[in-house]
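We store amino acids, tokens; thus:
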Amino acid sequence: MSVPAKDNGMKFTGTVAVKGNEPHTYCALMVDGVEYKIVGVKEKEIRRSYQNNIITVEGVIVKERQGILPSEINVLRIIRN
């Protein structure tokens, strides 16, 4: 689920997953069947600490979906886990 948040960001609640094949993996947030690639300074923390967990984050969509490539969200903060 995604909803508007303060500071022009959005709140996203979903399951963290690592997608792709080595060496080309990326961290994703699965929200209601929609995949968002996580980018920005919080990506490593989310990949390391929250894989396969449901979390809520606040972020901004920085790149829209292009073909099979998912939209990208820059996570500004982790709200809860």
